[in-house]
Write a structure and sequence with these properties.
alpha/beta; Rossmann fold; 2 domains; 9 helices; about 15% strand
Length: about 190
């Protein structure tokens, strides 16, 4: 579990692949650990002018032990240099032990090496093969929700998962037989 390896000065860095959305995973983790994501998780999608808001959320999280998730950090490489310095200052000052920083970005060469070295890097690549894709698609539905359905609905959900798995596996052939490349990720399921 990557969370157990993270600290107040070791952020968790999600390298995004098409269709992945780590926000839901972080919210689920917060609930599992007994945090209310609506109160304890601050999300900021970086872009023009969002660096001020991100710094405010970082200061609150550092002092009060909240989680901060900065999304699309690749859009503001200059801010990342300041972020690295801010994390060093937090380490000297001493953060609340519950404080955690989550970062997400597309793969980019503009991310500072120091920030990458400090971080726990994660990516969510789809599995290879029909059977692993099927398992992944079926586990996207909570077991209780799946078992409470009528037999017809279960059959339809299974067919949907099978179709999605075939489409995910078919990606390795590129655009052959298709007009353009499409990722068919878990978001499509």
């Amino acid at each position: 579990m990557s969370y157990a390896d993270s600290t107040t000065t070791t952020p968790i860095y999600f390298i995004l692949s098409p269709g992945s959305n780590p926000v839901r995973d972080v919210e689920t983790l917060a609930l599992k650990l007994g945090f209310d994501p609506k109160k304890m998780l601050h999300q900021v999608a970086l872009g023009q002018g969002q660096d001020v808001i991100a710094n405010q959320k970082l200061d609150i999280g550092h002092k009060e032990g909240h989680w901060v998730m900065l999304q699309n950090v690749h859009l503001m490489p200059a801010f990342l240099i300041d972020l690295e310095k801010k994390l060093d200052a937090f380490a000297i000052e001493g953060s609340n032990p519950n404080f955690r920083l989550f970062l997400s970005s597309d793969p980019s060469n503009d991310i500072p090496i120091g920030l990458l070295e400090k971080s726990i890097k994660l990516t969510n690549e789809p599995p290879q093969g029909l059977k692993p894709n099927m398992k992944r698609a079926l586990t996207a539905f909570p077991r209780e929700e799946f078992e409470d359905k009528e037999a017809k609905i279960k059959t339809i959900l299974f067919g949907l998962c099978y179709f999605h798995s075939v489409m995910c596996e078919r990606r390795k052939f590129g655009t052959k037989g298709w007009n353009r490349h499409y990722p068919f990720s878990m978001g499509d399921l």
